[in-house]
């Protein structure tokens, strides 16, 4: 009986909602979007209101672009209900758009307009935009070179690390010989090999590939090994009573069971190989984003450095996103995996 | 096709195998010291019999099952399946463990298919997997992953994974031990039905006297470790059996007495 009276109360109360809560609800839902639009208008105004203290060619276009973004945000927020998932995504990210707009405005004012931060070490946003528009070919070449070097070294290192890890985890004899070597060489930072690698390998390219593979291989080996070693004996017992041969035990029991560990190794290897990549490019390889950074520094082209850093961080983050996407596909059977 | 396979499985049951356990002694090496677990165990099981092994916890029953499965070798004595010596695991002797130990990375169907896949005959025998899933009533869950199953469902999948191989000897190591009491009673009835339908020889380790008496033709009572055969009791009652049957209650009192628990009765 009491449940009936409760729902009756709710039903009769519903139509009596007044206008004030409606407005409050609208502000709660769309306020951040409107604020974001305002922040980007502020950014646009900060670009166009004052004269630049330096000579940058993209200030006007940047101001216009900021107004365009502000307009899109505003219309998107107002019409979010008609835009489906895009509208929802905009609402969810609106607070970040506010923060970004405020940050860009402060940055613009503090650098290009009043030079509170010393130039040329702190270039304004339009200087970085200028790099992307005017120095694009060289930047793209560098991106391409970095990706090629990283991908080659990483794939070689991951493959060798995985095979070594499975072998050590599976075979006592392999473990006997490989384990001490791994303990001796593995913890050494791969960059410590730089001087030796650069004169023993025929090219700086192959030397860098070797170093990236080394940096990737160690964590992948150790985690694959620990993954294989920690597989419960019960799984092997079950498979053996069902008629499994040793090859089946390795390929269909040990490796799938170890896969969550393997992905932790691949993730750690990716991180340490990025470090090696950049150092190798700065020191020996005459291409890639690391080299671009070094080159820009040599010319005191600080805007180029920031531009390259932003690209580099997008690439590294993208690589990790890709790795996690692959993991989520392969490990759908796991509960509660970390979302990247 | 599933129904046809099922019908075939019913009309041509895989006959059970005889099992001979002859003077088996076994011990564990723990830090150099020898810990005896089985002492002169001799049991002869007829084809198609349902034998329950009952004994105090940790007495060595499960060790005996591992020897029968061929997972371990005895220190002394021999084990034979239909006159051929047991030296290694064979899909004709399949174990269902206390934990379902399903492979979490495989779907229910792929878990049941494990034995056929390991023996390299899955491609031509896929219908056997479907039939086994049908047998335990889990066809609707073929694409589920183990973490989505309840304890009883997981143990049914483990049972299907064993039965799909048409074992001659089914080895059950307290398979119902971790289930709730209602699920346990249901699955006891299912086990008896499957055994009657398929005709395999069954070896069940349990420490529940009632479960042993409801299920088995024969109850073998073991002593404390090292396990010796203390009593070999025939249970001549038709199936389905009733828990309240005074004949079974009487046997239960005897068995608990053998285990030194008559004071609690």
TrEMBL record, chain A:
Subcellular location field: Cell membrane
Main location: membrane
Gene3D superfamilies: MetI-like (1.10.3720.10)
GO cellular component term of the entry, any: plasma membrane
ABC transmembrane type-1 domain location: 143-324
UniProt-listed GO biological process terms: transmembrane transport
Membrane topology: Multi-pass membrane protein
Keywords assigned: Cell membrane, Membrane, Transmembrane, Transmembrane helix, Transport
Pfam family, one: BPD_transp_1
Residue stretches spanning the membrane: 62-84, 96-116, 151-170, 182-201, 207-236, 305-326
SUPFAM superfamilies, sorted: MetI-like
UniProt family annotation: Belongs to the binding-protein-dependent transport system permease family.
Protein name, entry field: ABC transporter permease
Organism (species): Bradyrhizobium centrolobii
UniProtKB/TrEMBL annotation, chain B:
Coiled-coil boundaries: none
Keyword Amino-acid biosynthesis in annotation: no
SUPFAM superfamilies the record matches: P-loop containing nucleoside triphosphate hydrolases
Keywords for the protein's UniProt record, in alphabetical order: ATP-binding, Cell membrane, Membrane, Nucleotide-binding, Translocase, Transport
ABC transporter domain ranges (all copies): 19-249
Superkingdom of the organism of origin: Bacteria
Protein role: Involved in beta-(1-->2)glucan export. Transmembrane domains (TMD) form a pore in the inner membrane and the ATP-binding domain (NBD) is responsible for energy generation.
Family that this chain belongs to: Belongs to the ABC transporter superfamily.
The protein, known as: ABC transporter
């Amino acid at each position: 009986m009491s449940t009936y009276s409760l729902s009756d109360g709710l039903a009769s109360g519903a139509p009596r909602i007044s206008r004030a809560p409606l407005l409050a609800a609208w502000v709660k839902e769309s306020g951040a979007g409107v604020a974001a639009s305002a922040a980007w208008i502020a950014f646009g105004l900060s670009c166009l209101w004052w004269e630049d203290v330096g000579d940058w060619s993209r200030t006007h276009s940047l101001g216009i672009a900021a107004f365009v973004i502000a307009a899109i945000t505003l219309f998107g927020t107002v019409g979010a209900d008609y835009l489906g998932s895009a509208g929802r995504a905009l609402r969810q990210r609106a607070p970040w758009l506010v923060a970004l707009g405020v940050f860009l405005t402060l940055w613009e004012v503090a650098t290009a307009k009043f030079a509170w931060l010393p130039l040329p070490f702190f270039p304004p946003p339009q200087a970085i935009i200028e790099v992307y528009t005017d120095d694009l070919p060289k930047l793209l070449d560098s991106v391409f070179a970095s990706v090629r070097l990283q991908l080659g070294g990483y794939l070689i290192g991951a493959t060798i690390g995985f095979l070594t890890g499975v072998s050590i985890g599976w075979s006592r004899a392999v473990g006997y010989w490989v384990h001490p070597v791994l303990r001796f060489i593995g913890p050494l930072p791969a960059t410590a090999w730089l001087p030796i690698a650069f004169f023993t390998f025929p090219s700086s390219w192959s030397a860098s590939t070797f170093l990236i593979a080394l940096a990737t291989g160690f964590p992948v080996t150790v985690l694959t090994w620990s993954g294989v070693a920690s597989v419960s004996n019960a799984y092997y017992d079950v498979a053996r009573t069902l008629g499994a041969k040793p090859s089946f035990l390795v390929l269909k029991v040990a490796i799938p069971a170890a896969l969550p560990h393997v992905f932790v190794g691949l993730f750690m290897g990716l991180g340490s190989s990025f470090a090696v990549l950049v150092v190798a490019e700065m020191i020996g390889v005459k291409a890639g984003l690391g080299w671009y950074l070094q080159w820009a520094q040599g010319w005191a082209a600080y805007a180029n450095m920031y531009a390259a850093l932003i690209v580099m961080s997008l690439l590294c983050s993208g690589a990790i996103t890709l790795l996690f996407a692959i993991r989520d596909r392969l490990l759908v059977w796991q509960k509660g995996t970390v979302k990247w | 096709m599933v129904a046809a396979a099922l019908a075939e499985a019913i009309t041509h049951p895989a006959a059970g195998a005889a099992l001979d356990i002859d003077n088996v002694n076994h011990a564990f090496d723990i830090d150099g010291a020898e810990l005896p677990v089985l002492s002169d165990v001799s049991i002869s099981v007829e084809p198609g019999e349902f034998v329950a092994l009952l004994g105090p916890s940790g007495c060595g029953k499960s060790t005996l099952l591992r020897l029968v499965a061929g997972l371990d070798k005895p220190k002394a004595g021999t084990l034979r399946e239909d006159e051929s010596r047991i030296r290694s695991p064979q899909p004709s002797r399949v174990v269902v463990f206390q934990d379902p130990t399903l492979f979490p990375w495989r779907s229910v169907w792929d878990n049941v298919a494990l034995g056929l896949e390991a023996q390299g005959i899955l491609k031509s025998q896929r219908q056997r997997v479907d039939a086994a899933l049908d047998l335990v009533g889990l066809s609707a869950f073929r694409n589920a992953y183990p973490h989505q199953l309840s304890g009883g469902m997981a143990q049914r999948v483990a049972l299907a994974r064993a039965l799909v191989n048409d074992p001659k000897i089914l080895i059950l190591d307290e398979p119902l031990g971790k289930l709730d009491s209602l699920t346990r009673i249901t699955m006891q009835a299912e086990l008896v039905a499957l055994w009657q339908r398929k005709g395999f020889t069954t070896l069940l380790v349990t420490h529940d006297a009632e479960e042993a008496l409801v299920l088995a033709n024969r109850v073998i009572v073991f002593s404390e470790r090292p396990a010796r055969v203390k009593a070999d009791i025939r249970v001549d009652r038709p199936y389905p059996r009733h828990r309240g049957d005074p004949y079974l209650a009487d046997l239960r009192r005897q068995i608990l007495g053998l285990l030194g628990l008559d004071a609690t009765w």
